[in-house]
């Protein structure tokens, strides 16, 4: 049998492609507050949709990556489900209207708490694209106090906002799969195809420049770009083409950013002294995105090798494979 098709020949810890940059050391005297807090804002309880698993997967992945705390900001009707799926997280329920959509006043209060109390917002897993979802995204990307990882329906809802290119204030990492990328590209009147590796790189770079954000265009050879720099990921495999693995990637990137990226310094809503440099947070947001996609793929490769199988991966298993990869570095 050709070794290239043998799952057992997937890269081991000693042979897998090297990460794009070194992983910073973990403070041996740290506590859960030291390693950052991720708020995962998602879930939908509007009929006929009921989505609770996606935000729980993102929270699980953030914690497996080393974040100190993960908080689920979800519709009140789903919080118990979310905490059952990820009991290590905490939850902030958001009140709902009679039709199941989110109460905007309570949502605004929850988002205010997240932007001032957490390091990273992961917005979009299972969110839907209703009016409450669009308001959630507008509040998330319109603030400047914490980083945002925007995924799934967070991206789809962004494309429904008016004055899209003037809306993004927050430092944003956007993680579209090809379908989400094409929908947003149509809104931006971008005509580039994404059928070849070269087209994917060019189109992702153009979107990053237009929106002033970091774009992670998922797929075989995931592309990470801020419009000026480019990283094409060498890890990962076809077993990862299954439901929920994108939610895991969102949590991984958010968990890394919470630990190793300093909070935004601008814009600030009031005059404040500059934050002192934090040597325990040496990464840029771009660094976190690059390392995150590498780690996500390496965890998938480790799963294939351990199971000697090219398929059957579950998203929660992918999240649970992350600590082993981190431990091998």
Roughly what fraction of the amino acids lie in strands? 5-15%
Strand order of the largest sheet: 3-2-1-4-5-6-7-8-9
Spatial extent as radius of gyration: 19 Å
Number of domains: 1
Intertermini distance: 31 Å
In one word, what is the shape? Answer: globular
Q: Can you give keywords for this protein?
A:
single chain, 329 residues, alpha/beta, UDP-N-acetylmuramoyl-L-alanine:D-glutamate ligase, 9-stranded mixed sheet, 9 strands, 39% helix, globular
Describe this structure in words.
- This protein is α/β, with parallel strands linked by helices.
- The protein has 10 helices and 9 strands.
- The protein has a 9-stranded mixed sheet with strand order 3-2-1-4-5-6-7-8-9, sandwiched between helices.
- Helix 1 (53-64) crosses helix 8 (245-260), helix 1 runs parallel beside helix 10 and helix 3 (104-117) runs parallel beside helix 4 (131-141).
- The radius of gyration is 19 Å and the shape is globular.
- The two termini are 31 Å apart.
Chain-wise SSE layout:
Blueprint: E1 37-41, H1 53-64, E2 69-75, H2 79-85, E3 90-94, H3 104-117, E4 120-123, H4 131-141, E5 147-150, H5 153-158, E6 172-174, H6 178-187, H7 197-211, E7 214-217, E8 223-225, E9 230-232, H8 245-260, H9 285-307, H10 315-328
Parallel strand pairs: 1-2, 1-4, 2-3, 4-5, 5-6, 6-7
Antiparallel strand pairs: 7-8, 8-9
Kindly summarize this structure in a few lines.
Helices cover 39% and strands 12% of the residues.
């Amino acid at each position: 049998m050709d070794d290239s098709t043998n799952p057992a020949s997937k890269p081991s810890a000693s042979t897998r492609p090297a990460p794009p940059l070194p992983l910073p050391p973990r403070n041996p005297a740290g506590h859960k507050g030291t390693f950052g807090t991720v708020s995962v804002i998602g879930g939908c309880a509007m009929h006929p949709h009921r989505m609770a698993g996606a935000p729980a997967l993102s929270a699980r992945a953030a914690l497996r990556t080393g974040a100190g705390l993960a908080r689920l900001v979800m519709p009140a009707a789903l919080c118990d489900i979310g905490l059952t799926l990820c009991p290590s997280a905490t939850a902030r329920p958001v009140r709902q209207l009679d039709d199941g959509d989110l109460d905007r006043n309570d949502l605004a209060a929850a988002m205010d708490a997240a932007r001032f109390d957490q390091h990273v917002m992961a917005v979009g897993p299972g969110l839907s694209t209703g009016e409450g979802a669009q308001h959630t995204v507008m509040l998330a990307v319109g603030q400047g106090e914490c980083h945002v990882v925007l995924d799934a329906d967070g991206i789809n809802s962004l494309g429904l906002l008016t004055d899209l290119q003037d809306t993004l204030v927050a430092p944003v990492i956007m993680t579209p799969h090809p379908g989400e990328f094409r929908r947003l590209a149509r809104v931006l009147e971008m005509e580039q195809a994404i059928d070849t590796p070269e087209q994917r790189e060019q189109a992702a770079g153009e979107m990053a420049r237009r929106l002033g954000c970091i774009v992670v265009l998922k797929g075989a050879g995931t592309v990470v770009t801020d419009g000026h720099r480019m990283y094409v990921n060498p890890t990962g495999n076809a077993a990862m083409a299954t439901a929920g693995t994108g939610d895991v990637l969102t949590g991984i990137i958010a968990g890394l950013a919470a630990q190793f990226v300093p909070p935004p310094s601008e814009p600030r809503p009031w005059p404040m002294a500059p934050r002192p440099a934090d040597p325990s947070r040496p990464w840029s947001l771009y660094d976190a995105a690059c390392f995150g996609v590498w780690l996500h793929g390496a965890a998938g490769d480790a799963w294939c090798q351990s199971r000697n199988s090219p398929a059957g991966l579950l998203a929660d298993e992918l999240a649970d494979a992350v600590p082993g990869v981190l431990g091998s570095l």
